[in-house]
Specification:
The complex is a heterodimer of chains A (293) and B (811). In chain A, helix 5 (126-159) packs antiparallel against helix 10. By secondary structure, chain A is mainly α. Chain A has 2 domains: 31-121; 143-293, no CATH class. Chain A has helices spanning 29-51, 63-80, 82-87, 96-118, 126-159, 164-181, 187-198, 205-211, 218-228, 234-266, 268-292. The longest helix of chain A is centred in the middle third of the chain and has 34 residues, at 126-159. Chain B is globular and about 95 Å long. Chain B is built from 25 helices and 43 strands. Chain B folds into 5 domains: 4-129 and 253-313, FAD/NAD(P)-binding domain, CATH 3.50.50; 144-251, FAD/NAD(P)-binding domain (3-Layer(bba) Sandwich); 324-473, Jelly Rolls (Sandwich), CATH 2.60.120.10; 486-603, Sandwich (Jelly Rolls), CATH 2.60.120.10; 630-731 and 747-795, no CATH class. Classes of the chains: A mainly alpha (293), B alpha+beta (811). The structure holds flavin-adenine dinucleotide, protoporphyrin IX containing FE and iron/sulfur cluster (3 copies). Residues 677-680, 683-685, 702, 718, 720, 722-723, 770 of chain B line the site of one iron/sulfur cluster.
Chain lengths: 293, 811
């Protein structure tokens, strides 16, 4: 600013910290700080594993294995704490973006920590179950990161400044107009239109939601039927067909919206329950190690 | 009719009628001359059934005629009876055209040619004489009317009411009656409704809320065409359907007529009033002026004055005005002993902003103010204190602490605290009494009213604000004396959004200071206007022209509806010549600006698309009104996953109510402006808060302190729809409990259903709720902290649109 006039704003106030000129997403946070830390950690483990010759053979039971196991278990607990952090609005300074960034990269490092902790000894037991669950959580996390990185722009483009409520309201508005416009139609033509009016935009089940395909869509069916029908007056029918295709477009937008939102959320329904399964298996693993080894 | 009466009263409004009734009671010979065929034409012309208000409530009525709040018909009926009962000698169809002669022997000639002779004259012709006409294009079209006789005459029409004083509001409410099915719009030039009575304003607001009429503030007519009206709004021009325009633009005293009798006015302004003595005698001995013409528009005052003036004429010298006791109480605490009238004169003589205020206005005005005596060194207010009242120095002087231990005096007659009037910022400096002093404290509402009705006061306040602003811009090296010539020729101009102030390539050397709003600087590069810079309120532009004499090298236009102060190039140059340090500082700023311009130009050559995106983004941000924001929430929709954690965090940090609507709002290039407070430079929401609880905090946040009465004015005044009227939901079970047992509504704003179930029949009071930038929360804004992806950011436009952004865009 080339103004001689300094805006009256005290320096380094609380808001200054969160007011950014150029922002970065959670993946790039602090110039990939957590990616670097986590990568370094993995490298350290891999190299030290190769260099240190533990006896009798590398496994979770050696001091090296215990070290990695402890780090891994604590890390898993910390990763789980994200769910709490996200919802607990304490008033001190923290940034969920930084937490997510660390979560993602440190979570990935568990692939190395966990696997190297096993000493590559896998089998059909509770210990390996814990490892498998961990890998599944990580995999679902990877899916999550992928959708987080790719879908928001599509969500934004599709909604085109409309809110979900407005999308629903638009469909309802077409329904009201359809109701009036369908009055002159013959009973034969009215039936599919009424079915379309009765349609619940949210119905269709999880598969339809995720795929965005609604084969039994009553609006599409009514549109098809009326296009072919010759029973009612042409003018009235054309009006209804016009409204039906507008409603179809509005429905398509809403369904696409719901689909993207579902894709952005559905993985958490795997990620989180598996996390709890993992913690259970992990506890069993640890208890069995200490009491029955 | 050649007898000489003791008093001829011209005009039979509440003032004239009450005067005549008193004369009748006293058995004084008199005549009441009325130009129409009925009494009290102004009130006669009110809409049918209008409820006439009897404000100010605390004032007692002193008249031989009855008056209390009631319907127009009832009041007029009473007055007809009262006129007869008091043996008033009224002559109708007597339109007075000329007054000649002198005290004891006046000759009053009517338009019909009759002549009346009187010893004294009471002039009570009101101000309805000449309604102000519309001045925009098409103002002479026949569908513009200046009064509504009967709202029922309008059915199923698009009606625009221009002007939102009492008359305009009442007309609008009349024609907006649901059964008439009119589409009614009312326009107000400014943000607030300082000229209208609070009750009318709240009735209008209620009608607006219920959708019976649409209220447009900061909007003026620009072009009238048959069937259409083009409006000038803060966001650019807009054309609306319009079959009838009701113009209620106020009125001016029928000054020519009054002056033709030799009566002098308080000032040259159109809105000035006749100079009057405390007994209402004008500068022509024997002619007394009362009522609206005297500057006193409320019916109760008019009637009291009618009574008083006849008592005075009858030789009663011991009569005190009806508001005397209230005023006496206000002055009671002062050390000197003076009568109320002496105090009023004392203030008018000694304080610049009161110089043009008539004694009568001064009385009303003082009823809304405080006067206090301060001992030398006593603190008037501390830096950072909330407060938006204005202080005037009647005696002694004040000292502003500009830096610890460094003070600057403000002399007697001047004012301080004026910044609060505009932006509502907290007190910027501590002020102490520099000697034993008397300061008048004027509430913000009263000060706005004063500025609205006394042009001289407005000029004085504006001038002082400008001097202080210039001193601050050209820090050091300047004195008020240096600025004198610059300020003398300065003019304030209102610039609607999008209007060009300075056009590239034009010759010109005027310098502009932005008083409110903001500007964008653009340059035509390769046939496309490219955004160069954002100028917030308080900056200046146009100085390159003065220094170099070259044509304007960029275009400057208003980002939002703004006010600029235009300083002539000549006066500015003289000032620079006298003060070399200031010239140097200005030159340095110019060089810096020029350097940035050329940087962007060079970028445009090599990174054209990045510069275009930067420029278009800037355009979008300005279009969204962020030009007046100081701190706004933006969402990068390349990152936002729609989790709404930002909203939940907001709710959980503030009594369970979210102050942002993430999904609503406009988007450009995936940059989304959600519905959330932007903490405007000049907050519209502050314009009219009856308990005055909206303030600006130290971080620039605009917030409401406890005490909101839930009137909803702020919600209606905020152009960005960010204020909700809502009651805080009951306490939720703890987060852990919800996580472990699923008990309770979980994080975020509880659903209305849950709240209702929890509260049962209890109905908590709804108050205004909006973003306070997480004031008092150490971690800072919760929305940003709680966003998992980094999509939510808080920005100020000047930082966001800084050159650094372009540099990064361009890689
Ligand atoms: C729409 C509207 C609503 C209002 N509502 C209220 C309200 O609710 N409460 C309130 O307190 N105030 C209200 N006011 C203000 C109030 O009505 C006026 O200020 C008040 O009537 C002024 O009284 P007056 O006696 O000074 O003059 P007026 O009432 O204006 O009377 C002047 C009279 O003089 C006559 N006259 C003018 N020129 C001449 C001439 N040359 N020769 C002879 N006669 C002449 C006129 O015909 C008129 O009858 C309202 C005003 C308007 C316009
Ligand atoms: C064993 C390791 C992991 C555990 C125990 C774990 C656990 C969790 C938990 C409990 C949540 C909170 C979900 C919620 O409350 O909404 C979460 C969120 C998330 N996890 Fe993991 N996670 C692990 C590994 C990973 C990995 C490796 C990635 C990425 C590659 C990842 C990516 C995410 C993301 C993106 C979120 C969502 C953040 C949000 O939207 O708030 N996680 N994880
Ligand atoms: S509430 Fe509205 S007017 Fe007030 S500061 Fe916020 S955005 Fe501006
Ligand atoms: S709703 Fe409350 S905060 Fe808003 S203007 Fe009215 S009293 Fe003031
Ligand atoms: S918290 Fe962030 S990602 Fe979630 S909705 Fe708000 S802006 Fe979007």
């Amino acid at each position: 600013m080339a103004s001689l006039f300094q805006r009256r704003r005290s320096k380094a106030t609380q808001t200054e910290r969160v007011r950014e000129r150029r922002h970065e997403g959670f993946l790039r946070y602090a110039n990939f700080r957590w990616a670097k830390i986590s990568g370094g950690l993995c490298l350290l483990i891999i190299v030290s594993y190769a260099l240190i010759d533990v006896t009798p053979r590398p496994s979770g039971g050696t001091w090296y294995g215990y070290t990695l196991g402890t780090i891994g278990a604590l890390l898993i607990l910390w990763l789980t704490a994200l769910g709490y952090r996200k919802r607990k609005m304490t008033s001190d300074y923290w940034s969920l973006k930084a937490w997510t960034s660390a979560h993602v990269y440190l979570g990935l490092s568990l692939i190395v920590i966990g696997t190297w902790h096993t000493g590559f000894q896998l089998g059909w037991n509770v210990h390996t179950l814990a490892w498998v669950l961990m890998m599944l959580v990580i995999l679902s996390g990877l899916y999550g990161v992928t959708v987080y990185a790719t879908l928001p722009a599509a969500l934004s483009n599709n909604r085109d400044e409309m809110t979900q409520m407005q999308m629903l309201e638009a469909i309802r508005a077409f329904d009201r107009q359809l109701h009036a416009a369908a009055q002159p139609l013959t009973p034969e033509d009215t039936a599919p239109v009424l079915a379309a009016l009765d349609e619940d935009p949210f119905a269709g089940g999880i598969m339809a939601r995720l795929s965005g395909r609604y084969p039994r869509c009553a609006t599409a069916a009514a549109l098809g039927a009326l296009r072919l029908s010759r029973s009612s007056g042409a003018e009235a029918r054309e009006k209804v067909v016009g409204l039906l295709s507008q409603k179809e477009a509005a429905l398509a937008r809403l369904r696409q919206h719901l689909r993207i939102r579902a894709l952005l959320e559905v993985w958490l329904y795997v990620h989180v329950p598996l996390t709890f399964a993992l913690i259970a298996a992990l506890s069993a693993h640890i208890i069995s190690v200490f009491f029955y080894w | 009719m050649s007898d000489v009466v003791k008093v001829a009263i011209i005009g039979s409004g509440p003032a004239g009628l009450s005067a005549a009734a008193r004369a009748g009671q006293l058995g004084m010979s008199h005549v009441l001359l009325e130009k129409t065929d009925h009494l009290s034409d102004t009130i006669f012309k009110y809409q049918k059934g209008k409820r006439v208000l009897a404000t100010p409530e605390r004032l007692d009525l002193r008249s031989d005629c009855r008056f209390a709040e009631g319907a127009r018909e009832y009041i007029l009926g009473n007055w007809d009876e009262d006129a007869a009962n008091n043996k008033v000698n009224v002559v109708k169809h007597a339109d007075v055209a000329e007054v000649t002669g002198e005290k004891g022997a006046f000759a009053i000639r009517t338009a019909k040619g009759d002549v009346y002779h009187a010893e004294t004259i009471v002039l009570a012709i009101g101000t309805q004489g000449n309604p102000n006409r519309m001045r925009c294009g098409g103002a002479d079209l026949p569908h513009i009317i200046y009064q509504v006789d009967d709202p029922e005459d309008f059915k199923d029409k698009h009606i625009t009411v221009v002007g939102s004083g009492d008359a305009g509001i009442e007309n609008a409410l009349g024609v907006a009656e649901e059964a008439l099915e009119n589409t009614v719009t009312i326009l107000n030039r400014s943000k607030d409704f300082a000229r209208a009575k609070a009750k009318n304003v709240s009735d209008m607001m209620e009608a607006g809320e219920n959708g019976f009429l649409s209220i447009r503030t900061e909007t003026q007519p620009k072009l009238v065409e048959p069937g259409w009206l083009t409006l000038e709004t803060p966001n650019g021009d807009e054309k609306i359907e319009c079959d009838v325009i009701v113009a209620r633009l106020g009125s001016v005293a029928p000054r020519g007529f009054v002056e033709s009798m030799g009566i002098e006015f308080t000032g040259p302004d159109r809105e000035a009033f006749p100079k009057l003595s405390p007994t209402f005698e004008s500068t022509v001995p024997g002619i007394f002026v009362i009522g609206a013409l005297a500057g006193y528009p409320l019916i109760k005052h008019c009637m009291n004055q009618g009574y008083d003036v006849v008592e005075f004429i009858n030789g009663n010298t011991s009569l005190t005005p009806a508001d005397e006791k209230d005023l006496a109480a206000i002055f009671a605490g002062l050390p000197q002993q003076k009568s109320v009238t002496e105090w009023l004169d004392y203030l008018r003589e000694r304080v610049r902003i009161f110089a043009d205020v008539s004694p009568l206005q001064m009385r009303e005005f003082m009823l809304d103010s405080k006067v206090a005596f301060y001992r030398k060194g006593e603190v008037v207010f501390e830096k950072g204190d909330p407060g938006s009242s204005l202080f005037a120095i009647a005696d002694g002087h004040a000292e502003v602490e500009v830096a610890p231990g460094v003070t600057v005096p403000i002399e007697q007659g001047s004012i301080f605290g004026e910044v609060g009037l505009i932006s509502g910022r907290k007190r910027g400096a501590t002020i102490r009494a520099g000697a034993d002093s008397i300061f008048v404290e004027v509430s913000r509402t009263a000060a706005l009213k004063l500025m609205g009705s006394v042009p001289g006061a407005k000029r004085a306040i504006n001038r002082i604000s400008l001097e202080r602003q210039l001193l601050q811009i050209f820090k050091g090296g300047l004195t008020v004396e240096d600025l004198g010539p610059v300020v003398d020729v300065a003019e304030v101009e209102r610039i609607p959004a999008g209007k060009v102030v300075v056009a590239e390539g034009e010759q010109g050397d005027d310098v502009y200071v932005i008083r409110s709003g903001s500007m964008v600087v653009e340059k035509d590069i390769g046939g496309k206007p490219i955004f160069l810079r954002y100028l917030p309120a308080g900056s200046f532009f146009g100085e390159m022209g003065v220094l170099s004499g070259a044509p304007r090298n960029a275009t400057v236009k208003a980002a939002v509806g703004s006010e600029v102060i235009k300083l002539t190039g000549e006066s500015f140059r003289k000032m620079l010549a006298a003060r070399p340090q200031v010239r140097e500082a200005t030159e340095a700023a110019v060089a810096e600006r020029a350097q940035m311009n050329s940087f962007i130009e060079s970028r445009k050559a090599s990174y054209s698309s990045a510069v275009d995106l930067y420029s278009d983004t800037a355009g979008f941000i300005m279009k969204e009104g962020l030009g007046e924001a100081t701190d706004a929430l933006l969402i990068d929709e390349n990152l936002c996953v729609g989790c709404d954690n930002c909203e939940k965090a907001c709710a959980d940090s503030h009594e369970g109510l979210s102050r942002l609507d993430r999904e609503a709002g406009k988007t450009f290039a995936h940059l989304h402006v959600p519905t959330s407070c932007r903490h405007c430079e000049h907050p519209h929401c502050m314009a009219d808060c009856p308990p005055n609880v909206i303030h600006r905090g130290p971080d620039g946040e605009v917030f409401m302190e406890p005490g909101c009465i839930g009137c909803g004015n702020c919600m209606r005044n905020c152009p960005y729809g960010v204020i909700r009227m809502e009651a805080a939901p009951p306490e939720k079970p703890s987060l852990l409990r919800w996580l472990l047992t699923g008990f309770g509504p979980g994080p975020g704003e509880p659903s209305p259903k849950w709240t209702k179930k929890k509260l049962g029949d209890e109905k908590p009071k709804k108050i205004a709720v909006k973003c306070d930038m997480c004031k008092g929360i150490a971690g800072g804004p919760a929305c940003v902290r709680a966003c998992p992806t980094g999509a939510a950011i808080r920005v100020s436009p000047e930082e966001f649109l800084s050159i650094a952004r372009l540099q990064e865009d361009a890689g």
